[in-house]
Amino acid sequence: MKNTIIEKASKLFLQLGFKSVTMDDLAISMGISKKTLYIHFENKHQLVSEVANSIFEKVTQDIIDIRRKAANPIEELHYVKMEAMKYIGNEKSSPNYQLQKYYPKIYAELRRKEYQYLGGMVKNSLQLGIDSGLFRNEIDVEFISRLYLNGMRGIRDIETFPVEKFKIEILFENYLDYHLRALVTQKGLKTLTNFKSTT
Known about the structure:
With 199 residues, the protein is mainly α. The protein is 76% helix and 0% strand.
C-alpha cells in the first residue's frame, strides 16, 4: 500500500505541486481514508520527502537509459535536458518551485545527492567527448563536471531566476549551449550544429 500511495502522490505532486496537494486531496483521489495515509506516513513532510526521493531515483534511472541510447555526449546532454523538463516545470505550481519554497530541507538533501549520483555520469560523458574528438582534450574533467552540475542547480534557483521573469526551458537551453560551446572542438561544433538543426 505504501508504494501505491507514493506512486499516486508522485503523479499528483508533479501535476499540481508539492504544496498544492493536501493529504485530504490524496486520500480522496485514492478512495481511502486519511487515517490510512497516516498509517504509512507520519505527516505530509515525510510523504513529500519519500516522493521527492522516489522521483529523483526515477529521473536518475531515466538518465542512465538515455546515456545508453544517445549517439554521442552532445546528444546525451540535450536528451537529458528534455527529460529533466518533464519534472521541473516553470510555474509556481511546479515541483521545483514548491520544493524550494515550502520544503527547503528536502530540496537541499536532493541537491546533495545530485553530485553523488550524477557526478560520475557527467565525468564519464566528458571523457567520452574527449576520446571521440568532440570535446577539447585539455579540459579538466573533474572541474568541468562540478561546474556543470553547479550551473544546473543555479539555473533552477528561484531566487536567482524567479519564475515570473525566466522560463526554465530557455534557461536550460541557454546554459547547455553555453556549456557545450566552451568544450567543443571543430568536430564537436559541427556535431552540435547538425543536431540542433534537426531537432
